[in-house]
Amino acid sequence: MVIKSLADLEKVASEGERRIHPPHLKVMVGAATCGIASGAKDVIHAVEETLKQFGNGAASARTGCIGMCYEEPLMDILKPGWPRITYSHVKPEQVAEILSAVKEGKVVKEGLLGKIEEIEDYTRTPTGHFHNYSELALRSQGHNTRSTHYRYPLENVPPEIAAVEGLFNLEFTAKQQHIAMRNCGIIDPESIEEYIARGGYRGLYRVLTEMKPDEVIDMVDASGLRGRGGGGFGTGRKWRYCKAAEGYRYVICNADEGDPGAYMDRSLLEGDPHSILEGMLIGAFAIGSQQGYVYVRAEYPLAVKRLEKAIDDARVHGLLGSDIFGTGFNFDLRIVKGGGAFVCGESTALMASIEGKPGEPRAKYVHTVEKGLWNQPTVLNNVETWANVPVIAVRGAEWFASIGNPSSTGTKIFSLVGKVNRAGLVEVPMGITLREIIYDIGGGIPEGKPFKAVQTGGPSGGCIPANLLDLEVDFDRLWEAGSMMGSGGMIVMDSETCMVDVAKFFTEFLKDESCGKCVPCREGLSQTHEILKRITEGEGQESDLDLLEELGKAMQDASLCALGGSASNPVLSTIRFFREEYLVHIREKRCPAGVCTALINFEINENCTGCTLCVRNCPVDAITGERKQVHVIDQDACIKCGVCLDVCKFDAVTRNTRNTHSGGKSQ
């Protein structure tokens, strides 16, 4: 069906409503990459086989990631008269028991995580659909940021469900606010009908039928939306500069997410691809563009598959192509798969890659809003930025600006990983503290170990120490602390993390990913890595710290692009906050965290019972000894993997934080 009017949207929305909230049993399984890696495919197969036996129209569906990666695989069940209920860590062999109980009006308590009685909905009215956009926007501005909800009709709810906690009231979710992630884990990402039922493409309709391009830019500018993929440049300002430039204009979505441990963009593309398309359509109308590109990592096959489906469906429904909504606005999209180079996340390198050239950055004084793709004016925003635009188009600038703080409005998605109990995706209002994210949402450090640092902003972000846990998370505060927002990676570290080793790891990654075009980045990273390697091997000198700082500042000042300009952040921030740890490595030839392999060794003490467990598990046969006799580690053969320490049940293996084999004293 080609959609030309609001009435047409309503017809498609009605079909989507029937799919989201059917009059029969429906089972949904989280099937983003994280869920699939945890076994979701086997759960889906078990669900489908069980529902075949039920008949009566029972249906299954796949959703994206709701953010609770630590609870995967997740299975949601919707039964008429009940709230939506969620089971976690679902095993295929549990499915039949759980669903059979639900069919009979009963509940299996094991694995029951939470319930959803109402869902926040940012892009439709309390009654379900839109009638007057201007009135809706005015009503929403500056008041309740928890705007409207869909409420499940409830009757005869079992007491076990009535007693369970709401899914959005759990410790992990209570302080979150899903705006960009509003549909992730809620709808089938491959259903345009379900997206439209949740208010999808209403923002585009309002923009095309009620607003002029300059008014759209003014709205986005007034919202305070800043780029969610790097330096946080004002989105409205970027659009305004591009619209003012002469030429054939392009819009690009940067989905080339290359940060280790980061998966915000992937999850949005897998869980709600139409929100990115709608955002790009609105941006294209604002600047006067007819052609767009989504540059996505080839290593994201599921994201590419769902994005291709979304683009095809949008074309079929007349939401991409010619005369969109009968307004005369024309726009279409192409997907370009990246070659896997981290540097292609940099705007000019990305555009060069789209053009079929090597992904190398251009001089930073060339502004892509004036001379970007094929030397034409180009707006490039990342996935999360585009996903926010439709909500702003519906709710208005003042509403969005009321969330967060004045300098950093709205919410931000973070990939919370590392030494944290509840790893996953979190979307929180700007201005929340690191402590709230790591402890209240993330559940703190496993085994109650002390928090040491958190690295934000990807490989070229900085490391923030424990004494700054109450730092507010926004663009400016993170920059002042020597780090940055970046795309939203957040790696938590405990007391067993060596900060010198962390700096070396990220420097090595950036060295390998540097395009090598400019000397400051190419040679600066190479020399920085060599110095850090010396320090972690016990061969460093105190003068190395001054040299590292000098190199880092030179890279910031003279590198060609943002990658080189920020590449020294891991080193400079760790020297700034953890200088003493560097000095211990240099002066005492010791790694306090027991990580740097050249500075540690393992020994077996008199507690050894001769059980031979360590002998059988050593990967290099470095341990010898007779049964029931104290064993010995061959220090020359030992590769410091620590397996012996992990498997020993008698506290007979000790890890020395100074290599006693090299003549030092055991610590």
Précis, in short:
The chain has 25 helices and 23 strands. It is of the alpha+beta class.
Description:
- This protein is of the alpha+beta class.
- It has five domains: 12-169, Glutaredoxin, CATH 3.40.30.10; 201-401, Rossmann fold (3-Layer(aba) Sandwich), CATH 3.40.50.11540; 404-494, Ubiquitin-like (UB roll) (Roll); 499-587, de novo design (two linked rop proteins); 600-662, Alpha-Beta Plaits (2-Layer Sandwich), CATH 3.30.70.20.
- Helices cover 39% and strands 17% of the residues.
- The chain contains 25 helices and 23 strands.
- The strands form seven sheets. The chain has a five-stranded mixed beta sheet, with helices on one face.
- Strand 17 and strand 18 (463-465) form a beta hairpin.
- Helix 19 (499-513) crosses helix 23 (569-587).
- The chain is globular and about 80 Å long.
List the helices and strands and how they pair.
Layout: H1 6-20, E1 26-30, H2 33-37, H3 40-54, E2 59-63, E3 75-78, E4 84-87, H4 92-103, E5 112-116, E6 118-121, H5 133-140, E7 148-151, H6 159-163, H7 192-197, H8 202-210, H9 213-223, H10 235-244, E8 249-255, H11 264-271, H12 273-287, E9 289-297, H13 301-316, E10 321-324, E11 329-338, H14 347-354, E12 378-382, H15 383-395, H16 397-401, E13 404-405, E14 408-409, E15 411-418, E16 424-429, H17 434-441, E17 451-456, E18 463-465, H18 475-480, E19 489-494, H19 499-513, H20 519-536, H21 543-558, H22 562-566, H23 569-587, E20 601-604, H24 613-617, E21 623-624, E22 632-633, H25 643-647, E23 653-656
Parallel strand pairs: 1-2, 8-9, 8-12, 9-11, 15-19
Antiparallel strand pairs: 1-3, 3-4, 4-5, 6-7, 10-11, 13-14, 15-16, 17-18, 17-19, 20-23, 21-22
Helix pairs in contact: 3-4, 8-12, 8-15, 9-10, 9-12, 11-13, 12-15, 19-20, 19-23, 20-21, 21-23
